Amino acid sequence: MLTPEHLHALHNLPLAARMAAEGLLHGAHLSRRKGAGMEFSQYRPYQPGDDLRRLDWRLAARSDRYYLRESEVDTSLTVHLVLDATASMNHRDDNGLSKLEYGRLLCAALAYVATQQGDAVALTVLHPGGLRHLPPRADARQLPRLYHALATTDATGQFPDTATLAPLTARRQPALTICVTDWYEENGEVERLLTRLRAAAGEVLVLHLMARNELEFTFRGAVTFEDLETGQQLQLDAGQQRRAWQQQLQPWLQATARRARTLGFDYQLLNTADPFTDALREFLRRRARGA
């Protein structure tokens, strides 16, 4: 599995998405259920009330017994990708990759996998000035639409307010919602959005992005930190603050995961230095569970 920075270096989102996903898709198959689809599966004895159009009359003529032809139809679902594109997603790791760039690649790979599984895919990009939304479709042109929307997305501003988010949470359509975010919030605005999405659509999977230099505090010497959304700055000595940072970070991450699961979200922490393997595998697992 190629690293995210190698995939980003391709400067080709469709190719990067396919390369990130194709290893996991090897051996993965669509879930199927019995029905009246096009692909023949098996015969079943006729029961009163069955649709007579599905009777196999040739078999009945040969055997003097009545059987229905059962088929297999692909089960699918709607996958709604929600990408946080606020300014905090511009944070860069030591490998030079920003959270937004990682999030773009991740969403593209998830869209590719979902499309290969026969699902309808939607995308919403969260901007303070308004939502960029592509409604769910399963046609051949949806992936290029998604790739273009992702490739032309920049991270700016603070998290959208309730009025801006209202059209998103007003849509009540069953879906697997996958939210890619750094969970940077001031007054619980991310949690409120996720709660409303769960009420509107059902299952919510949160992919929480953290850079390695945040998780391991790899900074050295005198460092000036700047809040990318407010512009506030803080100067400190990284060596002196490393232990305190790590002592506070781990309890916060544990509390965040615990809170997410208490509210009914599926939660996964992702290190932006790592491949997308875990996130893609988790999507396939949850898709299989819901199919």
From TrEMBL:
The taxonomy runs: Bacteria, Pseudomonadati, Bacteroidota, Cytophagia, Cytophagales
Extract the Pfam families matched here.
Answer: DUF58 (PF01882)
Provide the protein name: DUF58 domain-containing protein
Matches recorded under InterPro entries: DUF58 (IPR002881), vWFA_dom_sf (IPR036465)
User: What organism, scientifically named, is this protein from?
Assistant: Hymenobacter actinosclerus
Domain DUF58: start-end pairs = 42-246
